[in-house]
Design a protein that fits this description.
By secondary structure, this protein is an alpha+beta fold. It contains three helices and eight strands; from the N terminus they run αββαβαβββββ. The strands form two sheets. Strands 1, 2, 6, 7 and 8 form a five-stranded antiparallel β-sheet that branches. It has a three-stranded antiparallel β-sheet with strand order 3-5-4, covered by helices on one side. The protein starts with a helix and ends with a strand.
Amino acid sequence: MDAGAKAKKRRKRFEILDHTADIGLIVYGEDLKELFENAAEAFFHLITDLRRVRQKEERQVELKGESLERLMVDWLNELLYLHDVENLLFKKFKVEVIGEEGLRAKAKGELFREGAHVIKTGVKAVTHHQIQVKREDGGWRARVILDI
């Protein structure tokens, strides 16, 4: 295993931040696609026990291009909308396109089932407060604050 593979293996994917009346995420990725996939995983990790979620349903998400910070907020808010309106829990994310043209991704999961799933944290919204998406240490890092 070369040094790059070892570094990737050890690299954190996300952290949970305590924030007054809110909760925050610090998310990492080797590239922008991985950063946005890891952000979605961290988001649903807060909401539910991902080990209990199966990949039975798929939704396509398409967003217009804006700043990376705005795209991150819109991405997570769109997933929150699907969770709230369609009662979906997502587990697996595949970002196909990300950049100036926007974002196109797939999210896989299933409908919330009483008794099979638990809601750990109710998220009201993804905020623009202290949002940050930047290159760091040869990869990418994002900070996102959630209103709970």
